[in-house]
Amino acid sequence: MQDLREAEAYIAADSRLYAQRFAARVLSSTRKLAAHPRIGRQVPEADDPDVRELIVHSYRVFYRIAGDSAYVLGVVHGARDLWEAYAKPWERG
């Protein structure tokens, strides 16, 4: 996923070790979605109960529930203002 690679690269500029740990934690968190797709909270900025998020460190991991599956949509730093963002992770096509 491009968002995760970009976040990892950004963190790696300061610490390659922390960047690797961050990426591993995101992947570990998203693997739990297979068994528990409703584990995350609904995204306040999205008007869709199937768009949810997990928080990993200071990043928001967005995903969509479809039936019994969950599909990761993006990884965005928590400080980013998504109310005003032009391209929201759940609107990408």
The CATH topology comes to YaeB-like fold
CATH class value: Alpha Beta
Number of helices: 2
CA radius of gyration: 13 Å
Total domains:
1
Basic shape: globular
Q: Strand portion, in percent?
A: 25-35%
Helix content: 25-40%
- The appropriate CATH architecture is 2-Layer Sandwich
Residue windows where pLDDT falls under 50 for at least 5 positions: none
How can the largest sheet be summarized? 4 strands, antiparallel
Please count the beta strands (DSSP E, at least 2 residues each). 4
Class derived from helix and strand content: alpha+beta
Going across the major beta sheet, what is the strand order?
1-2-3-4
Report the span from N to C terminus.
Answer: 14 Å
List SSEs in N-to-C order: HHEEEE
Question: What's the CATH H-level homologous superfamily?
Answer: RelE-like
Residue-averaged pLDDT: 90
Give an overview of the whole structure.
This protein has 93 residues and is an alpha+beta fold. It has one domain (2-91): RelE-like (YaeB-like fold), CATH 3.30.2310.20. The protein is built from 2 helices and 4 strands, in the order ααββββ. The chain has helices spanning 2-12, 16-31; strands at 41-42, 51-56, 59-66, 69-77. It has a 4-stranded antiparallel β-sheet. Helix 1 (2-12) packs antiparallel against helix 2. The longest helix has 16 residues, at 16-31. It is globular, with a radius of gyration of 13 Å. The model has no long low-confidence stretch (mean pLDDT 90).
